[in-house]
Amino acid sequence: MTVVKKSLLSLLALVMFAVIAFQPEAASAAVKKPSASAIVNQGKKYIGVKYVYGGSTPKGFDCSGFTSYTFKQQGMTLPRSAAEQYKKGTAVSKNNLKPGDLVFFKTSNKAVSHVGIYIGDNKFIHSAGKGVAITNINDPYYWKSRFVGAKRVL
To answer: Does the annotation count 120 as an active-site position?
Structure first.
């Protein structure tokens, strides 16, 4: 082999290594999603935190501020609004809910206006009028008739 061919092969090998080693997709694929139990346990840490419209910290949460903050504390980013969160993940039927799924409701004139985190046993954790609390998803007085759908983001 000539010196030029050897040099070109060495350069090609170096370029291929750099492309593979420094791909953003490869780096992000290595990031693991949090477990459902980690999300549920994180959310439970904020039980009793007051409801604040537009709130997105433990000083006060609105519904989507609570879900986005909870997931962020476990290393996963969600959009800030309930409507935008509803666009993420895979649709899940109410009968197939698993802990960590996002559950969505229509509580105003918007198609999706409220979000919480399903924790199992027909219960979800969310921030509403009384602050962060656990509520039955089938509460016949309010939540059952307002259920819109669920998304699996984990």
So the answer is: no
Tell me the residue range of the domain where 121 lies. 32-152
45/31: higher pLDDT: 45
> Quick check: is 63 catalytic?
yes
Question: SS3 for 97?
Answer: coil
- Predicted TM-score (pTM) of the model is 0.80
| 3 and 36 together in one domain | no
Look up residue 21 and give its amino acid: A
Residues 78, 8: one domain?
no
Which of 114, 124, 143, 153 does the annotation list as catalytic? 114
Domain check: are 100 and 24 in the same one? no
**pLDDT, mean of residues 92-96:** 96
**Looking at 36, 126, 143, 150, which residue is catalytic?**
126
> Of these residues, 36, 38, 39, 63, which one is catalytic?
63
Q: Is the Cβ–Cβ distance between 149 and 104 less than 8 Å?
A: yes
85 is catalytic: no
Q: pLDDT at position 2, please?
A: 57
Name the one residue in this structure whose structure tokens are 């997931």.
71
- What average pLDDT does the chain have? 86
